[in-house]
C-alpha cells in the first residue's frame, strides 16, 4: 500500500503573501504566510481496454488549491470555498474525460482545470503517485489482463501552477531500495573523541532513495514515460556499476552524486535533481562467541538509527541569471515535505 503524507507541504506555496482581507484591528501586525486546502488520498484504478488487452494505472492523488482571499479563515465566509468533496469529484471526472496517459499529464489537466475554471483560484498543486503494477508474464508471453505488484520504486509526480506563470512539473521515484554486498566502503572520515566507528574498505551498501527531478521547460512533446524509465535506469547504473564488475562507492553521499550526474547527463530536459537517501545499515553478526567463524556471511540488519542525506544538483545558470536574493536561491525541486523514513 502506498502511503500519502497527511501534511502536504507545497513547494511554490511558501512565499509570504498579504491577505485580501486583513486581520482585525487588534491583529494588524499579523499576516497569512500561506493558506491552502484540498483533498488528499483520492484513489483511482483506471482500466483502458483495447480488445481483450487491458492496461491499468492505480493512482493516489492529492490536490490543493489557494484562493485569492482568506475570508473563510477571518470571517467564516465560505462563499468562495470549493468543497474538498468537489475537488475529489473533479479528479475522478477529469480522469474519465481525458484518460490517464501519464500521471504528469493528468496533473497538468487537474491544475489547468482549477486555475482556468475559477477566477478566484490562484494556485493549484497536484501530487500523484502510481502503484507499481506490472503485467504478468508466462514464459515470456504477457498476460492480457493479469498484473503483479512488483516494486522497483514508486513513480510519482508533482504539478504546480499559478495564474501568472506556466505549470512547473516534477517527476520522481520514491521507496527505491537498492543493495550491493561489496564494492563499497567508508574511510578517512573526520574523527574526534566521540568517534567509535571503524573504517571499512569493504561493506554492504543498502540505501532507500527518493529521487525527484524538475523539467527546465514542459512542452507537450515531452515523453514522460521514457524520461522516467531513463532516470530509473540511471539511478540503478550509478549505484551498481557494470554488471560484470560493479564500481566502488567511497560513501553513500558520493553514490547520490553519481545518481544526480547520470540523470543530468542522460536527460537534457531535466534542469535539477534532488535526492533524499537513507543508509540502511547491516553489521557483521558476531558469531565468535558461538565458536563459529563469520567471514562476512551473516549480517544483522539495523533499522534505527540510520544515516541520511539530502542534496540538490542543477545545471549552472548562465551569467546574469544568478539569484540575487537568498530567498530566490532555494531549490525549485523540493522534496523536503516528504519524509524519506523507511517503513
State mean pLDDT (0 to 100 scale): 87
Strand arrangement within the widest β-sheet reads 1-2-3-6-7-8-9-10
Number of helices: 5
- Strand count: 10
Helicity level: 10-25%
From the alpha carbons, calculate the radius of gyration and give it in angstroms.
23 Å
Strand content: 25-35%
Tell me, briefly, the overall form: globular
In brief:
This protein is α+β, with helices and mostly antiparallel strands and 343 residues long. It contains 5 helices and 10 strands.
What does the secondary structure layout of this molecule look like, with pairings?
Layout (H helix, E strand, L loop, with lengths): L36 E14 L2 E15 L3 H4 L9 H15 L4 H15 L3 E10 L2 E6 L2 E9 L4 E9 L5 E13 L24 E11 L8 H17 L11 H15 L3 E15 L14 E16 L29
Antiparallel strand pairs: 1-2, 2-3, 3-6, 4-5, 6-7, 7-8, 8-9, 9-10
Attribute tags:
10 strands; 343 residues; globular; 8-stranded antiparallel beta sheet; alpha+beta; disordered N terminus; two-stranded antiparallel sheet
Describe the fold and architecture.
- With 343 residues, the protein is α+β, with helices and mostly antiparallel strands.
- 19% of the residues lie in helices and 34% in strands.
- It is built from 5 helices and 10 strands, in the order E-E-H-H-H-E-E-E-E-E-E-H-H-E-E.
- Strands 1-2-3-6-7-8-9-10 form an 8-stranded antiparallel sheet, with helices on one face. The protein has a two-stranded antiparallel sheet with strand order 4-5.
- Strand 6 (154-162) and strand 7 form a beta hairpin.
- Helix 4 packs antiparallel against helix 5 (252-266).
- The longest helix has 17 residues, at 224-240.
Amino acid at each position: 500500500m502506498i502511503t500519502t503524507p497527511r501534511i502536504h507541504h507545497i513547494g511554490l506555496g511558501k512565499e509570504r503573501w498579504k491577505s485580501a482581507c486583513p486581520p482585525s484591528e487588534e491583529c494588524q501586525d499579523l499576516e497569512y504566510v500561506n493558506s491552502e486546502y484540498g483533498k488528499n488520498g483520492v484513489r483511482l484504478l483506471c482500466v483502458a481496454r483495447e480488445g481483450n488487452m487491458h492496461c491499468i494505472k492505480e493512482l493516489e492523488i492529492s490536490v490543493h488549491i489557494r484562493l485569492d482571499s482568506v475570508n473563510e479563515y477571518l470571517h467564516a465566509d465560505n462563499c468562495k470555498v470549493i468543497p474538498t468533496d468537489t475537488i475529489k469529484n473533479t479528479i475522478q471526472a477529469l480522469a474519465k474525460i481525458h484518460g490517464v496517459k501519464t500521471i504528469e499529464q493528468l496533473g497538468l489537466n487537474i491544475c489547468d482545470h482549477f486555475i482556468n475554471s475559477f477566477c478566484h483560484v490562484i494556485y493549484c498543486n497536484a501530487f500523484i503517485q502510481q502503484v507499481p503494477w506490472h503485467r504478468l508474464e508466462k514464459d515470456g508471453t504477457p498476460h492480457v489482463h493479469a498484473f503483479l505488484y512488483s516494486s522497483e520504486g514508486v513513480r510519482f509526480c508533482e504539478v504546480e501552477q499559478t495564474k501568472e506563470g506556466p505549470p512547473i512539473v516534477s517527476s520522481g521515484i520514491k521507496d527505491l531500495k537498492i543493495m550491493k554486498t561489496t564494492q563499497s566502503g567508508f574511510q578517512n572520515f573526520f574523527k574526534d573523541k566521540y568517534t567509535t566507528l571503524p573504517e571499512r574498505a569493504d561493506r554492504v551498501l543498502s540505501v532507500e532513495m527518493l529521487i525527484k527531478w524538475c523539467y527546465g521547460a514542459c512542452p507537450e512533446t515531452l515523453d514522460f514515460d521514457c524520461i522516467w524509465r531513463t532516470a530509473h535506469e540511471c539511478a540503478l547504473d550509478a549505484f551498481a556499476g557494470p554488471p560484470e564488475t560493479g564500481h566502488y562507492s567511497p560513501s553513500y553521499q558520493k553514490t547520490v552524486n553519481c545518481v544526480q550526474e547520470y540523470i543530468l547527463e542522460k536527460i537534457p530536459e531535466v534542469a535539477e535533481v534532488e535526492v533524499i537517501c537513507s543508509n540502511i545499515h547491516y553489521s557483521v553478526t558476531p558469531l565468535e562467541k558461538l565458536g563459529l567463524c563469520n567471514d562476512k556471511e551473516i549480517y544483522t540488519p539495523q533499522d534505527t538509527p540510520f544515516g541520511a542525506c539530502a542534496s540538490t544538483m542543477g545545471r549552472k545558470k548562465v551569467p546574469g541569471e544568478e539569484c540575487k536574493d537568498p530567498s530566490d536561491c532555494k531549490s525549485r525541486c523540493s522534496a523536503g515535505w516528504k519524509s524519506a523514513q523507511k517503513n
